[in-house]
Amino acid sequence: MKKNNHIVHLPRAYPSQIAPLSSIFFKEQIEAISQQNNTIKLGVLAIIQRPILKQLLLRNSQLLFSTNKNIERNITTWVKFLFTIPLPRKIKRQYINFSLLVLFKKYISTHGKPDLIHLQTYEMGAVALKILKKYGIPYIVTEHSSNLYNDKTRLSHDFLKKIYLKSSFNIAVSPFFSDYLTKKFGIPFNTIPNTVDTDKFTLKPKKKSSKINLLHVANCVEIKQQKLLIQGYSEALKHNQLLNLTIVGDGPQLESLKALVIELNIDSYVNFMGRLSNEDVKIQMHLADIFILTSKKETFGVVLIEALAVGLPCITTKSGGPEGIITHEELGQICDHNTEDIAKAILSVSSKEYDSKKIREHVVSTYSSKIVAGQINKVYEKILIN
Fold this sequence. Notes:
Layout: E1 6-11, H1 24-36, E2 41-51, H2 54-60, E3 67-72, E4 75-84, H3 89-111, E5 116-120, H4 125-135, E6 139-143, H5 147-150, H6 157-166, E7 170-172, H7 175-185, E8 190-191, E9 212-217, H8 226-237, E10 243-248, H9 254-263, E11 270-274, H10 278-287, E12 290-293, H11 302-309, E13 314-317, E14 332-335, H12 339-350, H13 356-367, H14 369-385
Helix pairs in contact: 1-14, 3-4, 8-12, 13-14
């Protein structure tokens, strides 16, 4: 790949001053690519949707009239805010796509035409197809979206297939997800995992307490199955009173989960922390002994590799992506989606000794920025040389 190749990323969402942690893994991956190859020119074009609310407008009215532009090292980021009114989904999507195409045209007038588009999920696929047709710029796709498991994409199967068929290279973030998408669309998908910042998620200190601290980090929504987690934990607690559970996250089910904890009479053992920053999540991981995730479906499970990076053994339900992460018993245990099996997994993992250093070494050799970015840069080389 010649020097100064120009790659533009089109993520479906991106961190901004309104939501600094939104889809932060997109930003972390782009920064990893930048660090791995400082001769590459990287662009990020993102549309951030927000409804027009009086309070929001009063605080952020200046965002209506400008594009937030930033250049850091070899990464140029343009974020455009769209404050939308309720519209039919099809019209709203056309409005978003049109706005992104206008943004792209302005970007290339300033920074030149890129050599390749990197599409992060199918959602901006219609834009990538139009860029391919109008400018002849090829694109690749990294697929993250769990909506593809249950056909909640709002796009037809045929249109999704067209997006992947026209792509020069299709990536999915776990072996399970790659196999699923390959079978679903009849188009090859290759596995490149998400990355973890191993400089941020550092090895936890040695245990000092006799308590066994379980940690769960996820939005409190149905697909994360925290109700099942709490019920399984409650059963395990009957056999081991040293177990404590911390739940980090916010969402529509939070209040009902708190009520369930009180109903089960385990509220003195369960701590709800609400939404935390990445730094505060790391602090909670350093205080924990075991990480547990009970999702119904996961395309990958970034929080699992963050937990492994600090040396925590992990318990996870069979949910797709995590089976490609917890690949052997030295990393933790995979269980079924029922109270009894979750309780058994908690008791089993809490009774074993794990080598935190070995757990972390596995993550560094598999998911560190250097490893993952190296794989992505090889894809860029393959596409741009041909």
